[in-house]
């Protein structure tokens, strides 16, 4: 199909906005942007007068098959793979309909995310574009070991990375710390991972909640930091200098700060997890106090990162079912909430929209294809009823969603 989207208020994703623009789309690619509509023959006009047109959103951190309901906190691994795969397929479509045109899955076992990515690319299943880390790689007994591949030392790490890439992963995800004041992988191990991935043109994402693991990961040359609650000034300065991306996933962690009931429920879950790792009594409570302190520091650390010029980008760490840590659940399209949180924590609306579009595309190493509305880019777009620059909450007024020039939601959707 060929479309002329006329009279739109255009936010191009790179920090620019223009009223009354017309965007021509042909064969899934943005052809031209016009200030006066001149619609060539064969293009269907869709009048967007009064509406806002912007690039589709990018969620850099999801887990397709995550369950993690309270009672299942550590039993995820026992949920049947087939059932998980079905859940993932449904979620891929929910995500797209919610305006997320590209997402990055950071760890789904049994090859489910890789299979889903292929099915979506072949047009067999409708869903967001998928970039996936395949199975996460952790040290033996490390964070998330129940749903990851365990590997220790350079030889096992190389083996795990190569197997994952052979299976079809687009990047590698490792875990470097949970809410504890010590790291997991050694510096040698981290460097092995970074060298091997970068040599193959692949990026590395690292789950890291606390220092000193965060500083080590940045120093080793990891590409994206996932979470990261208490980075030191030194770590943030190094991130700004090296261009390391920070995906703070506020959506999944904000309950720690604001919602007393949820925080208590969440801490109960963490307490159980620590006990299952063999910790007892005062040790567990001490670690929980430490984690609480890290969370309290989080908003201020976010602001410090902004001030220092750290590249902060959007990831929700969804989805989670209702009941997870006492919440109403985190839906597949929660990246919109992350955008709102970024503004609440100190970004201006334009910065937050860039964090979810052009900046997130850079973090994926896909900035030449997605994340902005410009000639030659893939036609991944959303149409909003209200302008999010006036009020960031308007990001929820989604009217249409287009991926690769095809409406998933809107006038010509299936
Ligand atoms: Zn995660």
Short description:
The protein is of the alpha/beta class and 414 residues long. It contains 13 helices and 18 strands. It has two domains: 2-55 and 372-409, Urease, subunit C, domain 1 (Roll), CATH 2.30.40; 57-332, Alpha-Beta Barrel (TIM Barrel), CATH 3.20.20.140.
Q: How would you characterize this protein structure?
A:
It is a single chain. This protein is α/β, with parallel strands linked by helices. It folds into two domains: 2-55 and 372-409, Urease, subunit C, domain 1, CATH 2.30.40.10; 57-332, Metal-dependent hydrolases (TIM Barrel), CATH 3.20.20.140. It has 13 helices and 18 strands. Strands 1, 2, 3, 4, 5, 16, 17 and 18 form an eight-stranded mixed sheet that branches. It has a five-stranded parallel sheet with strand order 11-12-13-14-15. Helix 1 (81-97) links the parallel strand 6 and strand 7 (100-105). Helix 3 (153-167) packs parallel to helix 4 (187-199). The longest helix has 28 residues, at 281-308. It is globular and about 70 Å long. Mean pLDDT is 91; it is low at 69-74. Residues 61, 63, 106, 317 line the site of zinc ion.
Helix content range: 25-40%
Q: What is the CATH-assigned architecture of the largest domain?
A: Alpha-Beta Barrel
User: Number of helical runs?
Assistant: 13
What about the largest sheet? 8 strands, mixed
What is the level 1 CATH name of the largest domain?
Alpha Beta
* Strand portion: 15-25%
- Average pLDDT works out at 91
Features:
single chain, 414 residues, alpha/beta, Urease, subunit C, domain 1, TIM Barrel, eight-stranded mixed beta sheet, five-stranded parallel beta sheet, 13 helices, 36% helix, binds zinc ion
């Amino acid at each position: 199909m060929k479309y002329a989207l006329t009279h739109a208020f255009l936010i191009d994703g790179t920090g620019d906005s223009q009223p009354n623009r017309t965007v021509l789309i042909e064969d899934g690619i943005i052809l031209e942007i016009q200030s006066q509509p001149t619609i060539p023959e064969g293009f269907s006009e869709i009048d967007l007068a009064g509406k806002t047109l912007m690039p589709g959103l990018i969620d850099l951190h999801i887990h397709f098959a995550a369950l993690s309901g309270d009672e299942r906190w550590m039993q995820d691994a026992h949920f049947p793979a087939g059932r998980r795969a079905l859940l993932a397929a449904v979620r891929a479509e929910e995500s797209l309909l919610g305006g997320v045109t590209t997402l990055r899955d950071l760890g789904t076992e049994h090859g489910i995310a890789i299979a889903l990515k292929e099915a979506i690319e072949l047009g067999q299943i409708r869903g967001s574009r998928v970039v996936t880390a395949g199975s996460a790689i952790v040290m033996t007994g490390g964070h998330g070991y129940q749903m990851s591949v365990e590997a220790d030392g350079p030889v096992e790490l190389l083996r795990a990375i190569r197997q994952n890439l052979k299976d079809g992963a687009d990047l590698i995800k490792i875990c470097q710390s949970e809410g504890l004041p010590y790291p997991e992988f050694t510096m040698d191990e981290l460097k092995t991972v970074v060298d091997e991935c970068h040599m193959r043109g692949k990026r590395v994402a690292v789950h890291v909640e606390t220092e000193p693991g965060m500083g080590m990961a940045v120093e080793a040359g990891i590409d994206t930091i996932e979470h990261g609650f208490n980075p030191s000034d030194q770590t943030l300065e190094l991130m700004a200098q090296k261009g390391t991306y920070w995906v703070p996933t506020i959506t999944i962690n904000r309950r720690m700060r604001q919602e007393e009931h949820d925080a208590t429920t969440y801490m109960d879950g963490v307490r159980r997890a620590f006990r299952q790792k063999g910790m007892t009594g005062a040790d567990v409570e001490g670690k929980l106090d430490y984690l609480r302190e890290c969370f309290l520091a989080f908003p201020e650390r976010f602001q410090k990162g902004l001030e220092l010029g750290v590249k902060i980008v959007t990831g929700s760490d969804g989805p989670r079912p209702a009941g997870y840590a006492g919440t109403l659940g985190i839906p597949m399209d929660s990246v919109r909430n992350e955008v709102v949180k970024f503004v609440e924590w100190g970004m201006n609306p334009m910065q937050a929209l860039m964090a979810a579009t052009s900046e997130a595309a850079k973090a994926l190493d896909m900035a030449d294809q997605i994340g902005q509305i410009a000639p030659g880019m893939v036609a991944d777009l959303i149409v909003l009823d209200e302008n999010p620059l006036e009020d960031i909450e308007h990001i929820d007024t989604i009217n249409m969603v287009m991926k690769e020039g095809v409406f998933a939601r809107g006038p010509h959707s299936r």
